[in-house]
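Entry 14. Ran structure prediction on the chain below.
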Amino acid sequence: MNARRTGAAEHLAVLDLLWPGGTRRLTRRPGRSNSLLVLPSLRSPRMLVPCSSPGAESMLVRFGRSRRHLLAQQVLSRSLRSGLLPLLPVWRLTETAPRPAGAAIEEHVRAHVPQAVALGVLLGPPRANAKPVLRIFDRAGHTIAYGKVGHNPLSAALVRSETDALLEIGRCPFGAFDVPTVVHAGDWRGLEVLLLTALNGKQRGAPSWELPLAAMYELAERERTEPMPVRASEYLADLRARVGGLTGNQGLTVMLDRVARHTADVELAFGRWHGDWAPWNMASTPGRVQLWDWERSRAGVPLGFDIVHFALQEQLVAHADAATTAAALLRVGGVALGRWYAQSQQREATVLLYLTEIVARYVADAGLVPTSALRDRLRTIEAVYSAILGHQKESYVDA
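Output, structure tokens:
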């Protein structure tokens, strides 16, 4: 396969690592039932949908909710159910023959998930931490497992981090939520691979922004510490070390110094957070929450980070202005963080430390060439931070 030659998006070339040695190639020729459709287009690939699995229709909800996307989804769904999908002149990856033994990701998956019959690949939009996510189907078309593939230093580190987090938290079950189980974690042809059980909860068509507080409280308190001043915490020392390791971002250092001074004597308790708790990383079953994507989870952060993160994502999706977002974060903190913090200074300190933490993450992920979407997100968070502290905005990513 040579994705670059056909003008596909650059990150599609990552799939050469999953099917090395030309074991799959791009074509528009119909008639191959074992092919993977490149959707929504070769110019903007977001997923590879297996023609051979009756359950592959479930992948199509990732297209989007516009009228054009819904129409395309209906056409493809009907074609898949009728068996006509392999005959459509859509760009696809087809197998070449013969295939060298051990030269395809399917073989590695089946060695650990014997029921696997077909797999799709979720690519998502191009971004620094993007990684192929495998959706694994059985013969009946049920999703039985997922896989993540780390193909560069950042994505490989994230896959290892998720493995460690799931193994750690999986030692004792939670009362309010469920997490995936690690089926396999290890190296395949120089790639970091993690295979997980599939959770069977259903996501809503539109995201629900109701805070799942029972589950958030339970996770945060799993490794809870006694309150201590922020200036004496291991968390602040770790955050300083991480920010200090980022070159050329003086604005972030200034932000951290201001927040550290502002919160120095505030007493906070520390525990675990998921790290990216949002509606798209969770589903619901009666009385429980199901939660995945644990790659950013860690212990030793101020209690409440997940709550503030969830609230920030809602404001970002709504494209709210800085003043509205700042007010929303403080308002959520005033209610949901009251379980741990009676004083407004404690709740504000949690919000400010979270904003510094998330900016540090985005700056680290940006590397030397941040995407325009990441730049926009950083500008928004800068303005929110400034609205809370009343400081002049700083730039946290070099131009």
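The longest helix spans residues 344-366. Will compare against last week's run tomorrow.
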